[in-house]
TrEMBL record:
One of the protein's GO biological processes: innate immune response
Name of the coding gene: DEFB123
Homology family: Belongs to the beta-defensin family.
Organism name: Aotus nancymaae (Ma's night monkey)
Name by which UniProt lists this protein: Beta-defensin
Localization per Swiss-Prot or TrEMBL: Secreted
Leader sequence segment: 1-20
Main subcellular localisation: secreted
Reported function: Has antibacterial activity.
Length: 67
C-alpha cells in the first residue's frame, strides 16, 4: 500500500513539473506555454492565449538598417 501511494505521489509531482504541452511553434524551435522557463523568451503571442517560448539562440537577430 505504501509503494502504491509513493508511486502515485511521484507521478503526480512529475506531471506538475513539466510545464507546457507538446505543441510546437516558431519553426519547431519553440513551445506554447502559459509561462516561459528561465532560459526562454517570448517571441510571439498566439491566438490560443499562450506564448511561444523560444530559446534566444533560435530567435532571429534584429538588424538595424542605417538610413
Amino acid at each position: 500500500m505504501k509503494l502504491l501511494l509513493l508511486t502515485l505521489t511521484v507521478l503526480l509531482l512529475l506531471s506538475q513539473l513539466t510545464p507546457g504541452g507538446t505543441q510546437r511553434c516558431w519553426n519547431l524551435h519553440g513551445k506554447y506555454r502559459h509561462r516561459c522557463s528561465k532560459k526562454e523568451r517570448v517571441y510571439v503571442y498566439c491566438i490560443n492565449s499562450k506564448m511561444c517560448c523560444v530559446k534566444p539562440r533560435y530567435q532571429p537577430k534584429g538588424r538595424w538598417w542605417p538610413f
